[in-house]
Specification:
Blueprint (H helix, E strand, L loop, with lengths): L2 H21 L8 H59 L2 H10 L15
């Protein structure tokens, strides 16, 4: 083969390589509109997740407050029950009679007449 034939063959091979390089185009996986939609979808998912977590935290706070109030109510009911028992003990007839006779010097008179209307 002559030099001219080799040179011609090399030129043809270079053109084929150049043509194949220019012919290969990179295909875009997602269009810009699809990318924007995916971004908006991801943002909505993130915002929704944050909203759910914040609602759960708020519900926890409210439940904690309810439990605290219920504990205070039970404590107050216990105090009220104790005071009711104390009132019952202090208002017995025997105790009132002993205070009236000993401390106040009162006496029961049998000659008392009951007047009815």
């Amino acid at each position: 083969m002559s030099n001219l034939a080799k040179k011609l063959q090399q030129d043809i091979q270079k053109r084929e390589i150049q043509q194949t390089k220019t012919a290969v185009e990179r295909k875009v996986l997602f269009s810009p509109g699809e990318k924007i939609l995916a971004l908006l979808f991801g943002a909505c998912i993130c915002i929704g997740s944050v909203q759910i977590v914040s609602n759960a935290a708020e519900i926890y706070k409210v439940n904690k407050g309810i439990q605290d109030v219920e504990a205070q109510i039970q404590e107050q009911q216990k105090v009220n029950g104790d005071l009711t028992v104390q009132v019952a003990e202090l208002s017995t007839y025997e105790r009132i009679w002993s205070i009236a006779t000993k401390e106040l010097g009162l006496q029961l008179n049998d000659n008392v007449k009951v007047v009815q209307e």
